[in-house]
Amino acid sequence: MRKLELWGGHECTVNRVGGAYHDQTIRSGHQHRISDLELFADLGLKALRYPVLWERIAPERPDSFDWRWTDERLTRIRDLGMRPVAGLLHHGSGPRYTSLVDQDFPLAFSRYARAVAERYGWVEEWTPVNEPLTTARFSALYGHWYPHLSDEHVFWAALLNEIDGTRLAMREIRQVNAGAQLIQTEDLGRTYSTRAVAHQAEFDNIRRWMTWDLLCGKVTREHPLWARLSDFGFADRLRAIADDPCPPDVIGVNHYLTSERFLDHRTDAYPPERVGGNEFMAFADVEAIRVCLPAPAGVEGVLQEAWDRYQIPLAITESHNGCTREEQVRWVREAWETAERLRGRGAEVVAVTAWALLGTYDWNSLLTRHVGHYETGAFDVRTGTPRPTAIAAELKRLGTGQGEAHPGTLGPGWWKRDIRMEFRPVFRTVETPEPRAEVRTPASPTRPLLIAGATGTLGKALARACEWRGIDYRLTSRAELPLNDEAAMSRLLDELEPWAVINAAGWVRVDDAETEVEGCMQANAAGAVALARLCRDRDLPMVGFSSDLVFDGAKGEAYVESDAAAPLNVYGRSKAVAESEILALAGKPLMIRTAAFFSPYDPYNFAAHVARSLAADTEVVAADDQVVSPTYVPDLVDATLDLLFDGETGVRHLANAGAVSWAEFGRQIATALGLNPALVRGVPGATLGLPAARPGHTPLGTERGQLLPPLQNAIARYAAVMAEAEFAGEAEAMADGGTPEDRQVGSGARVS
């Protein structure tokens, strides 16, 4: 058995919604960046799933081709030592002159395949149609994509068209290149259910194999779906396919954490948007990993099933997880280790494919809307220049066999922890047997992430995020990690041997700093610099936090990372000094500028002050001439941890996208909470009598990529958490343990 290979691919779907085509290659920017291919090759990829898509090459007429883009890129892929796996239709319905349900679709598609093969006769591996069953379901059964139909007869017609198109396409390709291989992909999961919905689960679990069953000639009279398709009038087509099959050379399994489903007839236990049904009954349809006990066997289970069923070489042809960075790394590593384990048991798994190398856009809406929702991949493309993430580092480690796994990613993924349960747990029964799989518990990491700042808003929020994300950490108080005692800090670093340090400690009382200059400068500048120096000496990444108050507000527009600091007050000066001196140390420092914290888990911020005051019909006075970019703390800490895993350094602005005055921010909070925004009275900031001077206009923009969602989105999520009944008691409990320095709630105050 040949060595396990690492493959890759960028999300290249071209799907049609109504009259509009959505092209992921354009949206990711790869359309105009051939240099991406060098980044891909550097990961150690042996093959690259790559688009030669019908809609892109021959969009207007079946006999008019534009090969220029593909010519350049396929040649470059070969020159870089990778093999292209040519994809001809990726979740598409074809150009405007055809459709999945057009009776002439198979023949027209095969003619296009012949043209591609003649152009690129040296290409050995082909995926004519990506995920035929899934594409037919979304286009002709659920109506999400063109031709937007919801009819089972039409669904089967669309699938058979794709299968016939694949068979005829491979016939044409092999007439040009007799050694051409078919790598047939399909999403593969398993459906579980309560006993009352067992009929639907059984049907789903048979139907999931239809792409490969048809190509392998297995859909004969003995097949459990033969009668159903014959009743729709497809018996002759089934016989023709079975008599002239086109079995894959490699079965490509695309598997996601959402691929395995659980159906429950007890619909009252689930949100209304999760409830659907069939012609017989209503039922909820949710991710099995979120409800089933024990957990489904996941990718290992479905791969084992596929091997047992077909005895054809397998590849994991898509492995992607839209989650936090360490979870994304854990997922791709699990896919690789699972493949190696199955190979050890005799299953011929030939490759693992890192999918969505450049991330994905709007898959949360199944590509039905163009709203800009982005999930990061091995590279983050939001600035237009791909930035490697921690996934890229892990892929390179797997692809080259060199280096160590990131210590912060060694714990189990969320799908193997208690937090996976989103709904009332359901114990699986004998009606939903589990395929054979090996249960393994990953070893716990031994090196923690060190977080300084146990009593502050940010330190506690970071610890909460680490708990949720399964990151081993140590949260330290000032007594444990005194920023004014370099020897004590050194001893603790040597004792814990952390893999990185986040300094969330320091002076936060902006106005008190005007009279306590030495204390502020010691905590925010001298102490922070000393800690950074110790980290540099140990080659440890370090994250520090700065503020929008390093700026004087004179720019008149949003500040970006390269703008020069010009603070107006002592607090701002302490942060500016820390930035300058820490970055001058070299090493691996990341300095994050942020502003105007708000969080449902901290009762001592401006938003919480507005909520309490307005709930008691008390007026809130706030500056209407000081414009800031409020930052939702849960968003801030998640982005901070992601950047730390990615190995980012330098200055980074992290604030929710948007700019408001403090008074307007208060009104927006009030509106979201259903309170009276008229009780927020805007006044000139100078009338508030605050000792520290505040700049008038310091929204934070970025030239390195906007990572946090829009402010309105953050406020909506803040309000949703605040609205939960249990929050009142939770906030009260936290208030009892709050410290005086947490209590910065005055108009225009910042906490950082």
From TrEMBL:
Cofactor(s) required, per the database record: Mg(2+)
Record-annotated RmlD-like substrate binding domain positions: 449-704
Catalysed reaction equations from the record: dTDP-beta-L-rhamnose + NADP(+) = dTDP-4-dehydro-beta-L-rhamnose + NADPH + H(+)
Broad EC category: oxidoreductase
GO biological process, one term: carbohydrate metabolic process
Family: Belongs to the dTDP-4-dehydrorhamnose reductase family.
The protein, known as: dTDP-4-dehydrorhamnose reductase
Keyword Protease appears in the UniProt entry: no
Protein task: Catalyzes the reduction of dTDP-6-deoxy-L-lyxo-4-hexulose to yield dTDP-L-rhamnose.
Example GO molecular function: hydrolase activity, hydrolyzing O-glycosyl compounds
Family annotation (CDD domains): dTDP_HR_like_SDR_e (cd05254)
Organism this protein belongs to: Phenylobacterium deserti
Keywords from the UniProt entry: NADP, Oxidoreductase
Pathway linked to the protein: Carbohydrate biosynthesis; dTDP-L-rhamnose biosynthesis
